[in-house]
Amino acid sequence: MRTARNNNIDLARLATDIKAWGRELGFQQIGIADTDLGAAETRLLNWLKLERHGEMHYMESHGTRRSRPQELQPGTLRVISARLDYLPGQAADSEAVMRDPQRGFVSRYALGRDYHKVLRSRLQKLAERIEARVGPFQYRAFSDSAPVLEKALAEKAGLGWIGKHTNLIDKQAGSWFFLGELYTDLPLPVDTPAENHCGTCHACIDICPTRAIVAPYELDARRCISYLTIELRGSIPGELRPLIGNRIYGCDDCQLVCPWNRFARPGAEPDFAPRHGLDAPELVRLFSWTEDEFLKYTEGSAIRRIGYECWLRNIAVALGNASTSETVVNALKARQEHASELVKEHVSWALERHYEQ
């Protein structure tokens, strides 16, 4: 972190240039926000009080640093928010994959390279462009890597509005994008927040398989398939397992049904292209992976963060929801004596599902 000493900066011109540099670096949009997140902080504290964060204890352990940027990074005056589209145009059709119970569905954001690395690298380059113009200044880059209310900040920066499913939506781009931030001490002019255009639509609420969107703009993470398959490290609640279907890493249902996503364009970033056929993988093949194969095929991917044990847990649930066949049953039997009690529990549940049919 370094502090700017040049008081003769044309801040309005600099803000315009930052947005242009961002586009040159591959970002689709850049916006600038102040650090007043009072309303978002109230919503966050109420959400935590209702324990809707489940076992994501880090959401509460950081106190108010998440909603007060100056507490996380002293001296912060503005947040430069960046959008990077990721929808992989060459991926298999999502709805077709979810209709095929012999295949597994992986959330489209995780099909390519880990987005944390891509965004942080690009944000650092943006900071270097700014530094070349104004000299040393205070900044810190984030990409879902610290306690940051990125959606609230992006909304203030004019990158879109937070929809009823709690994801950020842009009128021209839908919601298939990543967000990253530069906290800075530069007193840049701020952008106008976007207006909410959800209207009376409730498609995302209706489509949610586990009814995790308990009310407009209210998500109970404990029921969300993304939480269950990625954040949760223990046993998936039995009553929710049949509702997960063949989703083995995340869930895109609320985005797939959102009418604003008809305007979304495939991302141009090659790093986000599908790898190793994970856009429409056969469940039995994935379930046969050794831990070394799991590490090999998820190298550089966000998927690796859940670990091999939870990977097998998720696939066991999907196989339990698959059509009964000798191939599926034999694949599950092969894991009946797995060293992990977590895996064995979910395998047993899956086999019982097939024996009942």
Automatic annotation (TrEMBL):
<feature type="binding site">
    <location>
        <position position="208"/>
    </location>
    <ligand>
        <name>[4Fe-4S] cluster 2</name>
    </ligand>
</feature>
<comment type="pathway">
    <text>tRNA modification; tRNA-queuosine biosynthesis.</text>
</comment>
<comment type="subunit">
    <text>Monomer.</text>
</comment>
<keyword id="KW-0408">Iron</keyword>
<feature type="binding site">
    <location>
        <position position="168"/>
    </location>
    <ligand>
        <name>cob(II)alamin</name>
    </ligand>
</feature>
<dbReference type="GO" id="GO:0046872">
    <property type="term" value="F:metal ion binding"/>
</dbReference>
<dbReference type="GO" id="GO:0005737">
    <property type="term" value="C:cytoplasm"/>
</dbReference>
<dbReference type="Pfam" id="PF08331">
    <property type="entry name" value="QueG_DUF1730"/>
</dbReference>
<feature type="binding site">
    <location>
        <position position="224"/>
    </location>
    <ligand>
        <name>[4Fe-4S] cluster 2</name>
    </ligand>
</feature>
<feature type="binding site">
    <location>
        <position position="201"/>
    </location>
    <ligand>
        <name>[4Fe-4S] cluster 1</name>
    </ligand>
</feature>
<feature type="binding site">
    <location>
        <position position="204"/>
    </location>
    <ligand>
        <name>[4Fe-4S] cluster 1</name>
    </ligand>
</feature>
<comment type="function">
    <text>Catalyzes the conversion of epoxyqueuosine (oQ) to queuosine (Q), which is a hypermodified base found in the wobble positions of tRNA(Asp), tRNA(Asn), tRNA(His) and tRNA(Tyr).</text>
</comment>
<keyword id="KW-0170">Cobalt</keyword>
<feature type="binding site">
    <location>
        <position position="258"/>
    </location>
    <ligand>
        <name>[4Fe-4S] cluster 1</name>
    </ligand>
</feature>
<keyword id="KW-0846">Cobalamin</keyword>
<keyword id="KW-0411">Iron-sulfur</keyword>
<feature type="binding site">
    <location>
        <position position="254"/>
    </location>
    <ligand>
        <name>[4Fe-4S] cluster 2</name>
    </ligand>
</feature>
<dbReference type="Pfam" id="PF13484">
    <property type="entry name" value="Fer4_16"/>
</dbReference>
<dbReference type="GO" id="GO:0008616">
    <property type="term" value="P:tRNA queuosine(34) biosynthetic process"/>
</dbReference>
<dbReference type="GO" id="GO:0051539">
    <property type="term" value="F:4 iron, 4 sulfur cluster binding"/>
</dbReference>
<feature type="binding site">
    <location>
        <begin position="251"/>
        <end position="252"/>
    </location>
    <ligand>
        <name>cob(II)alamin</name>
    </ligand>
</feature>
<dbReference type="InterPro" id="IPR017900">
    <property type="entry name" value="4Fe4S_Fe_S_CS"/>
</dbReference>
<dbReference type="GO" id="GO:0052693">
    <property type="term" value="F:epoxyqueuosine reductase activity"/>
</dbReference>
<protein>
    <recommendedName>
        <fullName>Epoxyqueuosine reductase</fullName>
        <ecNumber>1.17.99.6</ecNumber>
    </recommendedName>
</protein>
<comment type="similarity">
    <text>Belongs to the QueG family.</text>
</comment>
<feature type="active site" description="Proton donor">
    <location>
        <position position="144"/>
    </location>
</feature>
<dbReference type="InterPro" id="IPR017896">
    <property type="entry name" value="4Fe4S_Fe-S-bd"/>
</dbReference>
<keyword id="KW-0671">Queuosine biosynthesis</keyword>
<dbReference type="InterPro" id="IPR013542">
    <property type="entry name" value="QueG_DUF1730"/>
</dbReference>
<keyword id="KW-0004">4Fe-4S</keyword>
<feature type="binding site">
    <location>
        <position position="251"/>
    </location>
    <ligand>
        <name>[4Fe-4S] cluster 2</name>
    </ligand>
</feature>
<keyword id="KW-0963">Cytoplasm</keyword>
<feature type="domain" description="4Fe-4S ferredoxin-type">
    <location>
        <begin position="186"/>
        <end position="218"/>
    </location>
</feature>
<keyword id="KW-0560">Oxidoreductase</keyword>
<dbReference type="GO" id="GO:0031419">
    <property type="term" value="F:cobalamin binding"/>
</dbReference>
<feature type="binding site">
    <location>
        <position position="179"/>
    </location>
    <ligand>
        <name>cob(II)alamin</name>
    </ligand>
</feature>
<keyword id="KW-0479">Metal-binding</keyword>
<feature type="binding site">
    <location>
        <position position="66"/>
    </location>
    <ligand>
        <name>cob(II)alamin</name>
    </ligand>
</feature>
<feature type="binding site">
    <location>
        <position position="226"/>
    </location>
    <ligand>
        <name>cob(II)alamin</name>
    </ligand>
</feature>
<feature type="binding site">
    <location>
        <position position="198"/>
    </location>
    <ligand>
        <name>[4Fe-4S] cluster 1</name>
    </ligand>
</feature>
<feature type="binding site">
    <location>
        <position position="144"/>
    </location>
    <ligand>
        <name>cob(II)alamin</name>
    </ligand>
</feature>
<keyword id="KW-0819">tRNA processing</keyword>
